[in-house]
Amino acid sequence: MYSEKVVDYFMNPRNAGKLEDANAIGEVGNPKCGDVMKIYLKINDNEIIEDIKFETFGCAAAIATSSMITEMVKGKTISEALKINNKDVAEALGGLPPAKLHCSLLAQEGIEAAVADYFIRKTGKAPEGFKSPHSTCSACGGSCGGGAAPVHEEEEEKFVSEDHRVAE
Amino acid sequence: MTMTPRKVYLDNSATTKVDSKVLEAMLPYFSEEYGNPNSLHAWGREARKGVDHARAQVAQLIGADPKEIIFTGGGSEADNLAIKGAAWALKDKGKHIITSAIEHHALLDTVKWLGKNGYEYTILPVDETGLVDPKELEAAIRPDTILASIMFANNEIGTIQPVAELGEVCRRHGVLFHTDGVQATGHVKIDMKELPIDMMTMAAHKMYGPKGVGALYVRKGIKLIPVIHGGGQEFGVRSGTENTPGLIGFGMAAELAANRLVNGEIDNEIRLRDKLIDGLIERIPEITLTGHRTKRLPYHASICVKYVEGEGMLLLMDAAGIGVSSGSACTSGSLEPSYVLLALGLDHSTAHGSVRMTLSKDTNDEDIDYVLEKFPPIVEKLRSMSPFYKKNQ
Question: Is the Cβ pair B116, A59 closer than 8 Å?
Answer without folding.
Answer: no
